[in-house]
Design a protein that fits this description.
This protein is an alpha+beta fold. It has 11 helices and 6 strands. A hairpin with a 4-residue loop joins strand 4 and strand 5.
């Protein structure tokens, strides 16, 4: 019979993150074989994850990773059941590990890859669930790479995260005006939660629905059709100001639109600066 020493238990715990007693039991079953013991713990982790799968995961953190040249970035939502667990070093390490797996997968990081029970992310989740005792999930991530300058912003201690991409800036991208603009636009998205990067991206059915609602509101007004048309266009402008990023009033100065902010920065830098895409994540919204 193999004697399971404290050093063996500690080694397995360091490798797997499982509890001391779980490691000791697994080593005993595996007769001291670390590979077999690791497999036993992984299987138990998956079983634990299955048992907890139905429990709500409304807490967690938004994690981020940005390349040194700001040409690639990743934003990910990792959920758990309680804010207490979300603040633990183990959970925060899980977020970092998931970001690493996404970076490692590169273009192969897709929705099906993320949810593959035999994939790296789900295996890491299973191990964390077994260790921390709460259900966890990674409902979504966004990875931008190679198409422009990427900026990020984390708000409310990790409960809201923004990733925004700009058309490739001029050589003076390190210019203070551009750095400030990136931060301001990211903060704008965090605070004002726009839905579209420009009017061109608003789906036709959404516009048709909005117009139909506005016309229905005016049905009994008795106003001429031409007047109603102008009122509908006015209401549509208000919709754009709420839902479309460039049309939004700046959170810094409501008298200035985001489009005007971009135009001012473009003049200062001598080249057109435009937002090409963005994503805003709030913990719990991705489920």
């Amino acid at each position: 019979m193999v004697t399971i020493t404290a050093d063996m238990v500690k080694t397995l715990r360091d490798r797997t993150g499982a509890g001391m007693m779980e490691c000791k039991t697994a080593l005993a079953e595996a007769k001291g074989n670390f590979e077999e013991a690791t497999t036993i713990l992984r299987k138990r982790g998956l079983a634990t994850a299955a048992k907890k799968a139905g429990r709500a995961t409304t807490e967690g953190l938004i994690g981020r990773r940005l390349s040194a040249d700001c040409r690639a970035g990743t934003l990910v939502e990792v959920n758990c059941e309680s804010d207490f667990v979300a603040r633990t070093p183990d959970f925060q390490q899980l977020v970092e590990d998931v970001l690493t797996e996404i970076e490692r997968a590169g273009a192969g990081a897709t929705g099906s890859w993320l949810n593959d029970p035999n994939g790296p992310v789900q295996k890491r989740l299973a191990a964390a669930i077994a260790k921390l005792g709460e259900n966890m999930a990674v409902p979504r991530f966004a990875r931008y790479a190679g198409q422009g300058h990427v900026g990020q912003y984390i708000h409310m201690g990790g409960r809201i995260g923004v990733q925004v991409e700009f058309a490739v800036p001029p050589p003076g991208a390190a210019h203070e005006a551009f750095t400030t603009l990136v931060k301001e636009i990211a903060m704008q998205i965090a605070a004002a939660s726009p839905s579209y990067v420009s009017r061109d991206f608003v789906p036709a059915d959404v516009l048709a629905s909005e117009k139909a609602i506005y016309r229905a509101q005016m049905e009994s007004s008795g106003k001429p059709a031409a007047v109603i048309d102008k009122i509908v266009e006015g209401k549509l402008a208000s919709f754009y100001a709420q839902a479309v990023l460039p049309d939004q009033p700046s959170i810094r100065d409501p008298k200035t639109t985001v489009a005007e902010m971009l135009a001012s920065a473009s003049r200062a830098l001598g080249a057109e600066i435009a937002v090409t895409r963005f994503v805003r994540m709030k913990v719990g919204d991705g489920q």
